[in-house]
Design a protein that fits this description.
The protein is an alpha+beta fold. It has helices at residues 2-21, 39-55, 85-90, 158-169, 183-191, 208-220, 248-258, and strands at residues 28-30, 36-38, 60-63, 67-69, 75-83, 96-103, 106-114, 119-124, 130-131, 134-135, 148-153, 175-177, 197-206, 224-226, 239-245. It is globular, with a radius of gyration of 18 Å.
Length: 263
């Protein structure tokens, strides 16, 4: 696993360098699904794919920008070269490189790299999860009324957003924030203890390249990842909504609080 992680770290750094170099020179277009893509996305995608498949040609490989390559091994990768492309285009600092490796359905490695804040999250099976080399852990807040809750909910679900603000106004949530941009980066904020709960409901369902690395980090440090009904996320494909929490206590309170307001 050491060598696999080493290659993944190198690939993430290479993609991060490309993101920074192309920040002011990229061109963009709109994909068939209506979402933006830049030539920086494509350059990062090419760099990660060539580095990983060059080192492990038998592995499967799934990338948002280049589709799926079936391998002969049970090991396969789920990568998003720039998770948070809209934020990248807007000049925000919430776009990251997201890389995960799975063994069948089990996530065994995760990397999330934010080159603009110099935050590098890395972990793998049998190894401890770290941020810039330092061990991380979720925070210890067990009461939703004292928790920092981050949400990413599409404006097509305005009633859900209003419902959360009502909970905050009633002091049932300690602090309500909305950190736009990368889904993977939002997961990392739970894993490193910056926030207690993350609630998501996007216009389009999340997929493996969006959430696998984040799921790995949160669960590796004792956090919880389910849908709004409390069902574990088993398959990382077409995930419509999420609740991600630092611990079981605050997770159960979050599920109870949103049960009547989120649809």
């Amino acid at each position: 696993m050491d060598h696999i992680l080493e290659i993944a770290v190198e690939a993430a750094h290479e993609a991060g360098d490309i993101m920074k170099k192309m920040r002011s020179t990229f061109t963009k277009e709109i994909k068939k699904d209506g979402t933006p893509v830049t030539d920086a996305d494509k350059a990062c995608s090419k760099a990660i794919r060539e580095m990983i498949l060059g080192a492990f040609p038998d592995h499967g490989y799934l990338c948002e920008e280049s589709g799926f390559v079936k391998g002969t091994s049970e090991l396969w990768w789920a990568t998003d070269p720039i998770d948070g492309t809209s934020s990248y285009i807007n000049g925000e600092k919430t776009a990251v490189v997201s890389i995960a490796m799975l063994n069948g359905s089990e996530i065994e490695l995760g990397i999330i790299y934010n080159p603009f804040t110099d935050e590098f999250y890395a972990g793998a099976k049998g190894m401890e999860t770290r941020l810039n080399g330092t061990l991380i852990h979720t925070n210890h807040e067990t009461e939703l009324s004292g928790a920092v809750v981050n949400f990413q909910i599409s404006d097509t679900h305005l009633d859900d957003i209003i419902g959360l603000y009502k909970l905050s106004a009633d002091d049932k949530i300690g602090k309500l924030v909305s950190l736009k941009g990368s889904t993977a980066y939002a997961f990392s904020q739970i894993a490193d203890g910056s926030q207690s709960v993350y609630i998501a409901h996007s216009r389009r369902p999340a997929n493996a390249w969006d959430i696998c690395a984040g799921i790995y980090f949160v669960r590796s440090v004792g956090g919880i990842v389910t849908d709004w009904k409390g069902k574990d996320i088993v398959s990382p494909f077409e995930v419509d909504n999420l609740v991600v929490s630092a611990n079981q206590d605050v997770h159960e309170q979050a599920l109870s609080a949103i049960a009547d307001i989120l649809r």
